Every structure is written in C-alpha cells, then in structure tokens.
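Protein modeling request. Please complete all fields; requests missing the sequence field cannot be processed.
Requester role: graduate student
Desired output: 3D structure, token encoding
Chains: 1
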Amino acid sequence: MLPATVAEPEPLRTFWQGWLQWSAGVGIDYSIGRKIAASLDSLGLQEAAGEGHTPLFNGGSPWASYWIETFQELRPALLQSRHITEETLAQTDNHYRDPHYWTSVITFTANWGRKPE
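Delivered output (117 residues):
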C-alpha cells in the first residue's frame, strides 16, 4: 500500500492514512510484501529477491470500481474506527468515479529465493 501513502490530493492521502490505521487495528499488515525477501534471506535461501508491480488507474476504471465496492462493503467498519470520516470517504468516492483522476494504491510483490545446494 506504499503508493497510497502519497496519494494526491490531500483528502485522499488522509483517507488512505485512515485506511492503514484501520487495517492495522484489525490485524491486516499491508507492508508484508516488502518484508518477504528479507524473510527468505533469514531462512537461508540464496539469491533472495523481490520486485513489485503498481497498477496506475483512473476513476471509473475496473480498478476504481473494485475500490469503490470495497469502500462500500467496509463503510460501517471504516466509519466506526473513526480513522475515516464521511467527508473523506465521499471525497475519495468522487475521485474514484472521475475518469480524469489518475492514481495508484497498491503494489503487488513477487519474491523468490533458491534453496542452498
């Protein structure tokens, strides 16, 4: 979720900061992908490495629709957490419906290592 931490404009960055606080509170670790290569190395795998892919999308796209549906499903929990307000949720929703708004939210990681010979 590293791209979400620098989202623009400010209300969206505030939304994603609230999202990450909410998720940490319910036991979700969105930074786990950045930790896997080091974990593989600590297990003794050789040539441990990783790379990431960050989709860039605009409002109204399938990615944006996915996030809008996710926001709707989690709305009660997000608001109850008090890390996210109705206002920031509405602003985020509006941007994710705007075809001229471009953003990225999440980086998918692939990690690997080789068993010692």
